[in-house]
Amino acid sequence: MNIDANMPTTNQLPSEFVKVTRIKNSCCFTTVDLLKLNERCQESLKEIYHRSYLIVCKLLSEIYEHIHCLYKLSDTVSMLDMLLSFAHACTLSDYGSFVPAEYASFKIAEQIFTRIGMDDDIETNCSTFMKEMKEVNYIIQNANNKSLILIDELGRGTSTEEGIGICYAVCEYLLGLKAFTLFVTHYLELCHLSTIYPNSENYYFEVQHKREKSEDRESILYTYLLSKGQTKEKNYGLKAAELSSLPLLLLKDANNISMQIADKLTRKQESTPETVRQTAVYQLAVRLIQASRNSCLDSDSLRTYLKHLKKIYRAESLTDDLQSTETAEEKEIL
């Protein structure tokens, strides 16, 4: 205990006070009862530490028996959170560390920018949409062609039309910047960018349709397989909503309304033969540049590789109509 020293001398203190010391203008002391209580607290604290140690040891022994399940769970989570996993893999490759993949090719990224999450910021009085805009503005102001950019579901905090417009404009800016970007969205209208810009590609996660025997309806099964191209899945959100056990009548009404809106707003956009050819030329140029800079093949192997690139270019540059025409001509010749 501490008290003000502006008081009688130490000899005049009560006899119950022990270990009395005077420091400048204060006087420190304790009592026998306080010492006993302190010893009891120390003993209780040691008992808590001991019991906590026993509980943790028991918990670890139980976890070790199911450690394989935890590893499998971590793999599943990494597939669910593909963007963060990709960022981790890119960081590991920059340091020359092991990357958990059969094959991986990364360019050195000077900076990694992310726009992931859907939370407002009460401290700065920012809504979810305003926070998205601030983060995207920071990316645009600081990114360059050697940056890695990860953007997840931009434009969710506003109307669909405005969200599509913002996403489209941001994508075009990043394409012109030539920064390697992973842009995740549910706006299928953005898939049209691949028909305009050869350095843009579409990928989607495959799902399987499962027929319920007990109920006369289909459900979707997530495969977590990433495939190249544009998804053919329609009403994906409504099918995902069925997993939440929403009433069937509500889902039916939502499906009818969405179909009416889609008929009014959606226009089918297909690639022209010219855009297909431009995309194939761009992909061929990228492969040739990569081969000229990094190839260690001998003359014969390099010649074989170039012939393979030629076949790939011809396959990618031909539209379905031209391919069917050439196939028919080849059959006539044979």
Automatic annotation (TrEMBL):
Tell me which Gene Ontology terms the entry assigns under biological process.
mismatch repair
Instruction: Output one GO MF annotation.
Output: ATP-dependent DNA damage sensor activity
Key words of the record: ATP-binding, DNA-binding, Nucleotide-binding
Its domain of life?
Eukaryota
> TM spans, by residue?
none
Q: Does the keyword ATP-binding apply?
A: yes
SUPFAM superfamilies in the cross-refs? DNA repair protein MutS, domain III (SSF48334), P-loop containing nucleoside triphosphate hydrolases (SSF52540)
Q: Which InterPro entries match?
A: DNA_mismatch_repair_MutS_C, DNA_mismatch_repair_MutS_sf, MutS, P-loop_NTPase
Entry keyword Nucleotide-binding: yes
Q: Which residues form the DNA mismatch repair proteins mutS family domain?
A: 147-163
The family note in this entry says:
Belongs to the DNA mismatch repair MutS family.
PANTHER family associated with the record? DNA MISMATCH REPAIR PROTEIN MUTS FAMILY MEMBER, MUTS PROTEIN HOMOLOG 4
Q: What is this protein called?
A: Rab geranylgeranyltransferase subunit beta
Q: What is the lineage of its organism?
A: Eukaryota, Metazoa, Chordata, Craniata, Vertebrata
